[in-house]
Write a structure and sequence with these properties.
Helix content is 40%, strand content 12%. By secondary structure, the protein is of the alpha+beta class.
Length: 349
């Protein structure tokens, strides 16, 4: 998984004996004792490495403390992993789900540990040009493969609600933002008014990951093959263009050492251009092209703003799970401004 696990802070500790007892009953082949460390990454569902006599496992749990409605849905993560893993799609094997919060204080699930490479910097500075292109082509191809899976065929026909995906998502993230707001932000208010009035038409339904980016993937140690796509908390069924436009935002986000690659010399680096990325995805998914992206960018930035506002709220309540949460929380206003700028490019006034 991502990053090396470290010592548990007081607010991250859990009853290891209770976890060990539960795993002996529910995880096939498990034998303890267990030792637990927490991965440093992840703003939402804390993730732990469990070392035991029978091997190494990964656990994802809900944060402790009060939570927003429908947030931190580890049960949905487990459901989609259980649906996709038998198909051969690259996800970790899920072992067991616990919805009894008395075991460790929160719902959680246990899955297999995938060992490979995780890339944090979208520029892939340690690779050559040909390797960079292969990595990006693999990212695009795996997304296209996900969007080509018929949800009902893998038992996910009821995984998302019917109707226009963007309509319900704008409504959901507006509600989440309202529930966690700590101040009035004018750009956010303008987006809340504009987005529902300008919803794009939806012509396809697919499995949507919801947070598909390079650092939520594990690659093989010596080739560009994707071993696992991680962090399915925001997954649902809906418009695949939501997923794809979220990925394409990396081409519009300035490079700062994370996933954004805007401003880089992509030709020299070997990274596909935005148009090349669109062409590759469309070829695999049988699309003629994609609509103007500015509305989709405005929506994705608005959604990200609402997520970050939720982190900001959890900081005030003392339940934020990541050491970098405070720095992340400072992004709410800039994200709102960036989203409104994209909305203006899409015709908002």
């Amino acid at each position: 998984m991502s990053g090396a696990p470290g010592t548990l802070a007081p607010e991250e500790r859990l009853d290891v004996a209770a976890l060990d007892h539960w795993m002996r009953i529910h995880v096939p082949g498990y034998s303890g004792p267990a030792s637990v460390g927490k991965f440093p990454t992840g703003q939402s569902n804390p993730t732990y490495r469990i070392e035991a006599a029978s091997g190494v496992y990964v656990m994802r749990r809900k944060p402790f403390g009060p939570l927003l409605p429908s947030a931190h849905a580890v049960d949905r993560e487990y459901e989609i992993l259980s649906a996709l893993h038998p198909t051969g799609f690259p996800v970790p094997k899920p072992y067991a789900l616990c919805t009894d919060s008395t075991v460790i204080g929160a719902d959680f699930y246990v899955m297999e540990m995938i060992v490979g490479r995780t890339f944090w910097d979208g520029a892939l500075p340690d690779l050559g040009a040909a390797q960079r292109r292969s990595i990006y082509e693999a990212i695009i191809d795996v997304m296209a493969r996900l969007h080509s899976i018929e949800p009902a065929a893998v038992g996910l026909g009821n995984f998302g609600r019917p109707g226009n995906y963007f309509e319900r998502q704008v409504r959901r993230w507006t509600q989440q933002y309202r529930a966690s707001a700590t101040e009035r932000i004018e750009d956010a208010e303008k987006l809340i008014a504009w987005l529902p009035e300008t919803l794009p038409l939806q012509d396809r339904v697919a499995i949507v990951h919801g947070d598909y980016r390079i650092d939520n993937m594990i690659f093989a140690p010596d080739n560009p093959r994707v071993l696992a796509v991680l962090d399915w908390e925001l997954s649902t069924t809906g418009d695949p263009l939501a997923d794809f436009s979220y990925l394409l935002m990396n081409w519009a986000t300035p490079h700062d050492g994370s996933a954004g690659i805007a401003g880089l010399d992509l030709k020299v680096l070997g990274i596909p251009t935005l148009q090349e990325a669109v062409n590759r995805y469309c070829a695999v998914t049988d699309r003629r092209g994609v609509p103007d992206l500015n509305w989709y960018f405005a929506y994705n930035l608005f959604r990200l703003m609402a997520i970050v506002q939720g982190i900001r709220k959890r900081i005030t309540e003392g339940t934020a799970s990541n050491a970098h949460a405070a720095a992340m929380a400072q992004r709410v206003r800039p994200l709102a401004a960036q989203a409104w700028a994209c909305a203006r490019e899409a015709g908002a006034r």
